[in-house]
Design a protein that fits this description.
Layout lengths: L5 E4 L9 H16 L3 E4 L11 H14 L5 E2 L11 H13 L3 E4 L3 H8 L20 H9 L5 E4 L5 E6 L3 E6 H5 L2 E4 L7 H11 L4 E5 L6 H10 L6 E5 L2 E3 L2 E2 L9 H4 L5 H11 L11 H4 L13 E2 L2 H4 L4
The chain binds glutamic acid.
Length: 316
């Protein structure tokens, strides 16, 4: 490692960016730039059913419009997950070699039913997958059935802690709190947790900044990276923008950057985001570059940020 910090944008091209995504991207960019680090733009287009090339171009346009730049990444296909299958295959084989991977024939419905029947006192616990302990005969019978299995990884009964740069130490006992999880779907597509961990490791990412909803994935990703022989990055999660009781989602088209871009100047949007998350005291227009000297995780709010859309849509 050359000592230079490396952050990343890792959006999925499954819709237009909304304000919540933009806040996460702005924080990721500021975190890296404040450390004189570089940025990668990785396209998380693993799921062919949900990814559309047109959205990828729109994401890049939105970043540029806002003033967020990157040194490596999209449109270089080396940074698109859809062209990185060989790396996921290799990691999958390495995990298999360690005896950690097993096929799972549970249907989605069975898995959901199992997940909704936790042991008493363990509301979050995965009751365990019956496929983890199949006898040789049972497994052969299922294989002969002709239905492709999903592939799960067997997690240890141990606590994995990440020291989040914003939320502090976050620990999970993997066996009890997340349970074995799918790393490759029955249709052959590699799962998010595996692909992200492999990419962060192989791309030399040292700073993972994203929305707080992914904090609960960080211990699994740390464990996967370390199990593959690497060193986990620093994780820093940011607050979410919420509307009512929900976090913003790509379905809420009114807050999509594509719509806002028609009426709002990029500095007005950046200034508003900086103020909403606590970095500045007023929402005066500012460019991302002007925000670098003001950036510090200590100033960023930890609680989620409710948006009142009516107020939000009036810009200076
Ligand atoms: N691709 C994920 C998303 O768009 C983000 C993954 C990550 O940052 O680890 O929500």
């Amino acid at each position: 490692m050359d000592g230079v910090q490396t952050g990343r944008f890792a959006p999925s091209p499954s819709g237009y960016l909304h304000m919540g995504n933009l806040l996460s991207m702005l924080l990721a960019w500021l975190d890296s730039r404040a450390l004189n680090g570089r940025m990668l733009f990785r396209l998380e287009d693993l799921d062919p059913a949900r990814s559309k090339p047109a959205y990828a171009a729109a994401l890049a346009e939105d970043f540029r419009w806002l003033g967020l730049d990157w040194e490596a990444g999209w449109p270089d296909p080396a940074y698109a997950q859809s062209s990185r299958t060989r790396y996921y295959e290799a990691a999958f084989a390495a995990l298999q070699e360690k005896g950690l991977v097993y096929p799972c024939w549970c249907s989605r419905a069975q898995r959901l039913a199992a997940a909704s029947a936790p042991h008493p006192g363990e509301a979050e616990a995965d009751p365990g997958c019956p496929c983890a302990w199949l006898s040789r005969r049972q497994r052969a019978a299922l294989e002969a059935g002709g239905r492709s299995p999903a592939w799960k990884i067997r997690v240890p009964d141990r606590t994995v802690a990440v020291e989040d740069a914003h939320y502090g130490v976050f620990s999970q006992n993997l066996a009890r709190e997340t349970g074995d999880f799918i790393i490759r779907r029955a249709d052959g597509v590699f799962a998010y947790q595996l692909a992200v961990s492999v990419d962060d490791l192989l791309m030399g990412v040292t700073r993972v900044v994203r929305g707080r909803d992914l904090l609960s994935s960080a211990p699994r990703q740390r464990w996967l990276i370390e199990t593959l022989g690497g060193q986990a990055p620093v994780y820093a999660h940011g607050p979410l923008l919420t509307e009512g009781a929900d976090k913003l989602s790509k379905r809420q088209g009114a807050l999509s950057t594509q719509v806002l871009r028609q009426t709002v100047r990029p500095e007005a949007l950046t200034g508003r985001l900086a103020w909403l998350c606590g970095l500045t005291e007023t929402d005066e227009p500012l460019s991302p570059r002007e925000l670098i000297p003001l950036f510090s995780w200590d100033r960023v709010k930890r609680e989620d940020i409710p948006l009142e859309f009516g107020k939000f849509s009036e810009f200076p």
